[in-house]
Amino acid sequence: MQTPPPPQPAATAGAAKTTTIYILATALFSLLFILSLSSSSTSSSPSSPPPLDPYLFPDKQPQSNPNHRHRLLIRNQRNTTNNLSEPPPPSPPSLAYLISGSNRDSGRILRLLFSVYHPRNHYLLHLDLPASQSDRDFLALTVRSIPVFRAAQNVNVIGKADFAYPKGSSGLSSTLHGASILLRISGNWDWFINLSASDYPLVTQDDLLHILSYLPKDLNFVNHSSYIGWRESRKLKPIIVDPGLYLSERTAMFYATQKRELPDAFRLFMGSSSSVLSREVIEFCILGTDNLPRTLLMYLSNTPSSASVYFPTLLCNSQQFNKTIMNHGLQYASFDTRQEARPLKSKDFHDFIQSGAAFASPFLADDPVLDRIDREILRRIPGKLVPGGWCLGESKNNTCDVWGDADILRPGRGARRLEKLLVKLLSNGTFRSHQCVVE
Ligand SMILES: *[C@@H]1O[C@H](CO)[C@@H](O)[C@H](O)[C@H]1NC(C)=O
Ligand SMILES: *[C@@H]1O[C@H](CO)[C@@H](O)[C@H](O)[C@H]1NC(C)=O
Ligand SMILES: *[C@@H]1O[C@H](CO)[C@@H](O)[C@H](O)[C@H]1NC(C)=O
Ligand SMILES: *[C@@H]1O[C@H](CO)[C@@H](O)[C@H](O)[C@H]1NC(C)=O
Ligand SMILES: *[C@@H]1O[C@H](CO)[C@@H](O)[C@H](O)[C@H]1NC(C)=O
Ligand SMILES: *[C@@H]1O[C@H](CO)[C@@H](O)[C@H](O)[C@H]1NC(C)=O
Ligand SMILES: *[C@@H]1O[C@H](CO)[C@@H](O)[C@H](O)[C@H]1NC(C)=O
Fold it and tell me: Tell me: the pLDDT tens digits for 361-372?
């Protein structure tokens, strides 16, 4: 006779205890990993990673797992909520986030990380070269001190920084560097999202993962337009040399006196640098045998604003991907008269929430509107992680200190807003008629 499974609170208290053991076991590994990232690309990752936390990932445990009673418990719980006569919801996807910042951004990066955290995802944090090594160390130490990050083994810090010039091509190179590390860290994420320290989420990760679980995994979300007026020409025709690519000190961008013609071997598309890209696209750029990604990179190395041109142009000029692109980066921005995104304030709250976007940008550091988003939208307590279905703690301020199955999502109103936006974008042929349109 089997003893009946203990009630839920007892099981989760046990979870908290066992995790401390896992923490000890994984601490060394995370240290090794940070070091291996920092010490040039010749390093190889350790041959056998430690087992994943059994409470977060009950389905990914080896067969001979002594914790299988807990697994049964989670299963049973799950089919009381899911009616057996209905099809189960699709299993949630996994996202790979690259979060970049510069000098004195480590606090903002951590805040953003806490507000977009989910154990299913992967996070790579990058403080660029102008930031001090002590900032980078602080970031790595803080990340290492958070139990769930160690249990899920999904937050890494780039130890050897890149130089990323905001307007030059070194930013693009740094993004591709991050994407390639993420490809190597994990074979199971589905979308790549590039965030800067000035971005902030408008939905919880449960909302986002829930909605994305219903979409085909080859879909890409990238603002793009082939319209090139005088303003765009001014961005595309100058020839620059980005010092971030070859000098180790920050110096001014070098502009050539001549301008050049627009290319005719491919069609240029411009967009915003925020996007949600499928894993397939990232593999195409980094591992693919088609030469378009490299040709474009070399062309763009001397173009200002290359980050906002690369992915739109790549996707629209590729037969493989031009039908997978949705003309919206899922990010809200508001533009001033000079077509520059202006900082978002409290007065914009209603607009950006109603837009249904998943992220908004840019925000000033510690702007009060971020506290409002935390309070009203993410229900996040300052200094804590955004709560989700995996958080089982009982008191409000430690809800994510006790955890359970990361596959269980509790989407809220944010999911409905995002769904509305996607339905609008996908309806009536809006999707096709806005895709890679040549103007
Ligand atoms: C859960 O599913 C299993 C097998 O599908 C079934 O035997 C069991 O009765 C279900 N449990 C509950 C509580 O519905
Ligand atoms: C499960 O589905 C059956 C038949 O469709 C229905 O009668 C029952 O009320 C449902 N139960 C729950 C908990 O949704
Ligand atoms: C992206 O495109 C949408 C729809 O065309 C627009 O509303 C939004 O402002 C654009 N976002 C950015 C960041 O350019
Ligand atoms: C990724 O985000 C960083 C930080 O905002 C930005 O500098 C870079 O241009 C972005 N890269 C791409 C390819 O969009
Ligand atoms: C995609 O590429 C193919 C082949 O180049 C072309 O026929 C098709 O019109 C393109 N589709 C879009 C939406 O641009
Ligand atoms: C949680 O909040 C309560 C009051 O809101 C406080 O008494 C308690 O010390 C807090 N616990 C932790 C772990 O911060
Ligand atoms: C879709 O078509 C219907 C009827 O033709 C129209 O009322 C609706 O506004 C359209 N929606 C969009 C997003 O274009």
Answer: 999 999 999 999
